[in-house]
Design brief:
Layout: H1 2-14, H2 23-45, H3 50-64, H4 70-78, H5 84-116
Bound molecules: protoporphyrin IX containing FE.
């Protein structure tokens, strides 16, 4: 999935299909790319083995370091530190529900914008 999205991005860049009026769709695309990476990462964490636990710990600490909103954001994304089992359920909810809903909503806007911009810019 990551490889396909990056190939699509290369195609769009190569053909200059990010130029006006498609600039906003490029930005929407970047948000979709971030959601794909988050889906990938949460899936990796769901293995919940030693490697995943370390990745979860590092991700949590990095999030906490974000100025002003870090602690709150970490709590929302990862849950309270001392309730590890609940953290796994929270991760599962992110991976199978919240992120897919965000991705599908973003893709719908992305497709609508392609049509609104007059369809794809160049013959593929
Ligand atoms: C889940 C991820 C994504 C999906 C499912 C998706 C899907 C599509 C589809 C089906 C089209 C129309 C056909 C085509 O141009 O190939 C399109 C167009 C476009 N996409 Fe994406 N895309 C994704 C991610 C991205 C990313 C990461 C970028 C750039 C950062 C991007 C930028 C664009 C732009 C600018 C267009 C308009 C291209 C044109 O009109 O020729 N998309 N996208």
């Amino acid at each position: 999935m990551v490889i396909l999205v990056v190939l699509h991005m290369v195609r769009v860049f190569w053909t200059g299909s990010y130029l006006p009026p498609r600039r906003l769709n490029w930005v929407i695309g970047i948000i979709l790319l971030a959601l794909v990476f988050l889906l990938d990462f949460t899936g990796y964490l769901l293995v919940w083995d030693d490697r995943a636990l370390w990745a979860w710990t590092i991700a949590r600490h990095l999030t906490e370091k974000i100025p002003l909103i870090g602690d709150g954001l970490a709590l929302v994304i990862f849950g309270p530190l001392d309730l590890e089992d609940l953290c796994l359920i929270r991760l599962y909810a992110w991976h199978i529900f919240i992120l897919p809903v965000m991705l599908i909503s973003g893709m719908s806007i992305h497709f609508w914008k392609v049509r609104k911009d007059g369809g794809i810019s160049t013959p593929l």
